[in-house]
Write a structure and sequence with these properties.
2 copies of one chain form a homodimer. The first copy, chain A, is α/β, with parallel strands linked by helices and about 210 residues long. Chain A is about 40% helix and about 20% strand. The radius of gyration of chain A is 18 Å and the shape is globular.
C-alpha cells in the first residue's frame, strides 16, 4: 500500500498514474487544474503526504471504486429497494438483488446476512440493507467478519461512515426516509472514499475484535 | 420463559405477580386502574396472550429492568459522557465509566470494546458508547458476541431499537446531538422493554450469525 509521492502533479504526470490508486502530495504541493480533471477521470485519490501507511493491510480500507453493489431488504423496504436497484443500474453499476420481492413478512437478519456475506466474500464491493429503521439490519450485517455496516439517515452521516469508519455496508430505514432522501444518501456513500491512515488504522482494531469473537 | 396468563388482573392479583416479570392478558381481558398502578410499580410487563414464546432462550431479549449501565466514549464524547454519567447516577443506577477521561485522542474501537464486553459478560445490563457520530462505536460493539448495538439520533429510534432489535448497547454521536437530546434518547432507551415474541424470535437468527462467525 506504499503510495507514490509528488511535489507537483502536471497533466503528463496525471496520465501516468495508475487509475484507481492513491498518491501523496507533499506540503505546499500543487496539482494543475487540467491534471485535477485527469486525476478525477482516472479515479486517482490525492492525499496529504504521510497519510498512507504502508504497514496497514491493503484490504483494510473499503473498495474505493464501487462497481458491484448487493442490495437486500425485508418486507418493509421492498419499494425503496426497487427504486434504488433501478437507480444504481441506470448509473451503470452491477447490482445484485438479494430480495425480498414481496410484502410477505421476512426476517431482517436473513436479508442482511445475504448482503453482508456477498460483501465479505468480495462478490460485491459494497452492500445496502434495508428494513423499517435499518438498525436491525445493521446489527445483523455487522456480525459478519469483514463487514462494517452503518445506519445512515443523512448524507452527512453517509460521508462520515465512509471517511471515518470505512463502512462497506449501508443500512437504511424505509420508514425514516423517502426515496429522494435515500438516493442522496446512497450517492454520497458510494462516492466518498476512505483516505486517511489515522482512520484506516482504527479498522485494524475492529478486525482484531472480530478475530477474538 | 413461560408466562402466567390472566383474563382479569385485580389489585390482589397484581400484588402476587413477581416483580420484573412478564404476564399475558387474554383477548378482551381487563386490568383495573389500581392494579395497573401496582403492576407499573412492580415493573411487571403485561403483553397480549400468545406474545411470550416459551421455546425461545430466556437470555435472548435484553434485560428489561436496567440497573447497571456501562459507559464509554472516545475523546470527542468525553463531555457528553460526563453529563450522562452524572444523570444516570442521580437516577440511582449503578454506572461504570470505561473512559476515556481527557480530550487526548483515543481509538473508538477500544472504548466501545470495553463497554461491549461488560454487557456481553453480564457485568452491566446495558451499555452506552459515544464517539463523533456513534457509527464506529456501534460497528465495533456489534463485533462482540451477544451485543446488539444501535446508533440512535432520536427517541423514536431509541424506542424502536429496544422494541424491535433488543439493543443492549446504545451508540450516540457527540457531534450530532446536544446533551438535552442525548438525555431524552437515553431515557427512552432505558425505559423501553422488548416484549413481542415475533421480534425476539429474530434475535435468534442474529445469534446464529454470531455462531457462524
Amino acid at each position: 500500500m506504499a503510495a507514490r509521492r509528488f511535489a507537483f502533479i502536471s497533466e503528463t504526470d496525471a496520465r501516468q498514474i495508475e487509475p484507481g490508486t492513491t498518491v501523496e502530495l507533499e506540503p505546499g504541493g500543487h496539482v494543475t487544474p487540467l491534471a485535477g480533471d485527469t486525476l478525477r477521470a482516472r479515479r486517482v485519490t490525492v492525499v496529504p503526504a504521510g497519510s498512507v501507511d504502508p504497514a496497514l493491510p491493503a484490504d483494510l480500507a473499503p473498495v474505493a471504486e464501487i462497481r458491484r453493489v448487493a442490495l437486500g431488504s425485508d418486507h418493509s423496504g421492498v419499494k425503496l429497494k426497487c427504486v434504488l436497484v433501478d437507480r444504481l443500474r441506470k448509473r451503470g453499476l452491477a447490482v445484485e438483488d438479494f430480495g425480498t420481492a414481496t410484502e410477505e413478512p421476512v426476517d431482517y437478519p436473513d436479508t442482511a446476512l445475504a448482503v453482508a456475506r456477498a460483501v465479505a466474500r468480495k462478490q460485491a464491493d459494497a452492500g445496502i440493507v434495508i428494513d423499517g429503521a435499518g438498525l436491525g439490519s445493521a446489527i445483523a450485517a455487522n456480525k459478519v467478519r469483514g463487514v462494517r455496516a452503518a445506519m445512515c439517515t443523512t448524507p452527512t452521516l453517509a460521508r462520515y461512515a465512509r471517511e471515518h469508519n470505512g463502512a462497506n455496508v449501508l443500512a437504511l430505514g424505509a420508514t425514516l426516509i423517502d426515496a429522494a432522501a435515500a438516493a442522496e444518501i446512497v450517492d454520497t456513500w458510494l462516492s466518498t472514499p476512505m483516505r486517511e491512515a489515522r482512520y484506516i488504522r482504527r479498522l485494524l482494531k475492529i478486525r482484531r475484535i472480530e478475530e477474538q469473537g
